[in-house]
Amino acid sequence: MGIQDKRVYSSAKMSRALGTLLFFMLLVSFVFFLFGLYESDEALLLISVCAIWIFLVFKNLNRDRFTVLAFLITFFTFLMGTALLSSFDATVSLRVHRHETIVHIYKSLYIALLFLYLGTRLPTTIRFAVRRPLKHRESNVQYIQRASKYLFYISSVFSIIVALKSCFT
Q: Which of 34-48, 80-94, 104-118 is the least confident region?
């Protein structure tokens, strides 16, 4: 009993320490991102994007979210790979050479990863109330049929206008 208790305590302590380390990594990533925005520095922005990516990989390894992990690997391969490789190897360069464009790319990547984190965090922290399905009454079905028929008539007018325009041009 004593050995099992120590293992559980050690595991909980390690989990708490890993969570603290990951939160610190997210905080450092955010600070680097803010400094990179202020200075408009490509290197700081790239470091912040890589830091939040590493944070998300470790966070989702811990939770066993394989779909998000596969997305992160794809995200790195197709969006971050060339940028990171070009910072280590001078022979590989980005196709875009304007400083403003590269800074905008890094900002967009960081914001995408930040909202990916928020999106994976929301389902675990917020519980949504689920309504019971309504009983199907005949009036509801008729209302939906009538509404969809009117929407079809309205959209068909625009379809006819586009078809006539393409015939006469």
A: 80-94
Query: What is the C-alpha separation between 22 and 121, in angstroms, rounded?
Result: 14
CB atoms within 10 A of CB 61: 13
pLDDT for the residue 110: 92
How far is residue 133's CA from residue 169's CA, in Å, rounded to a whole number? 50
* Nearest alpha carbon to residue 57 among 72, 78, 77: 72
| Secondary structure (H, E, C), 74-142 | HHHHHHHHHHHHHHHCCCCCCCCCCHHHHHHHHHHHHHHHHHHHHHHHHHHHCCCCCCCCCCCCHHHHH
The rounded distance, in Å, linking the Cα atoms of 71 and 5 is: 37
What does the alpha-carbon distance between residue 63 and residue 22 come to, in Å, rounded to a whole number? 13
Taking the CA atoms of 133, 137, 138 and 144 in sequence, report the sign of the dihedral they define.
Answer: negative
Domain edges within the chain:
2-125, 134-169
**The residue type at 34:** L
pTM: 0.61
